[in-house]
Amino acid sequence: MRSLFHKTIGFCLLGLAVVSCQDKDDPNYQYMPDMYESVGYETYGEYKVFEKGQEAKLPVEGSVARGWLPYDYENNPQGYADAKANLTNPLPYTQDNLAEGRALYTIYCAVCHGDKGAGKGILVEREKILGVPSYDDAGRAITEGSVYHVMYYGINNMGSYAAQTSIKERWQIDHYVMSLKGQLEGKPEREYVEEGDVQKNLLPSRADANLYEDAGDVNSESSNENNQTESQE
Ligand code: HEC
């Protein structure tokens, strides 16, 4: 009886010793380790064979993400001046593009610039923001290129709209802003062109832009024969 008691205690201690050695953070016995630990490199794993021990590599310098193409004008006074002088709207001036531009303008710009573009948006009326110019401000003499440029980078108190809008949307807004400017200056309405007339690359500066045919809205509307190249700057 006594020895059975001792044996039981001894057995329990032994069991405890075995169980307590187990590390909770580690898998227990692995009968087929290959199934737990893959032979291949894990996507974000750390391995000595790689530079800086990091499996995930940075994209090669100069890589261009899908759906995005670089904008060639820099965010400085020179870039602004170049865009103002040289960059033109590649979208045809159709009724559809203008209507889209108007809708987007009302969403993004009208709070400050006002529905007519005279710089009297609701935030200006409530004095939440100051210094919003009218689009016919002679001193600024905005152009298609400068409007695109300030939407891309922002200017002083005005933020950038590059994250909220696509390339095509910005050009649509651009058409609408220029039409507001024309109205403020009392110019006659610009005539619409028919859809499909002139169609240029949305990013005229890229000679190889049609390499990226699947680049979202960038090229979806331009057919190949119209993908002519232009030299800008
Ligand atoms: C938060 C208010 C606000 C919003 C929203 C806003 N702007 Fe502006 N915008 C300004 C201010 C302020 C300036 C004057 C900046 C400066 O000091 O030059 C300005 C200036 C401009 C100019 C003149 C820039 C130049 O070349 O001198 C244009 C064009 C313009 N905005 C277009 C737009 C468009 C298009 C949108 C919508 C996508 C927009 N803005 C949205 C506040 C705003």
TrEMBL record:
Entry coiled-coil feature ranges: none
Signal peptide region: none
Positions of transmembrane segments: none
GO molecular function: electron transfer activity; heme binding; metal ion binding
Entry annotated with the keyword Plastid: no
Keyword Metal-binding: yes
PROSITE patterns named in the record: CYTC (PS51007), PROKAR_LIPOPROTEIN (PS51257)
Name used for this protein in its record: Cytochrome c
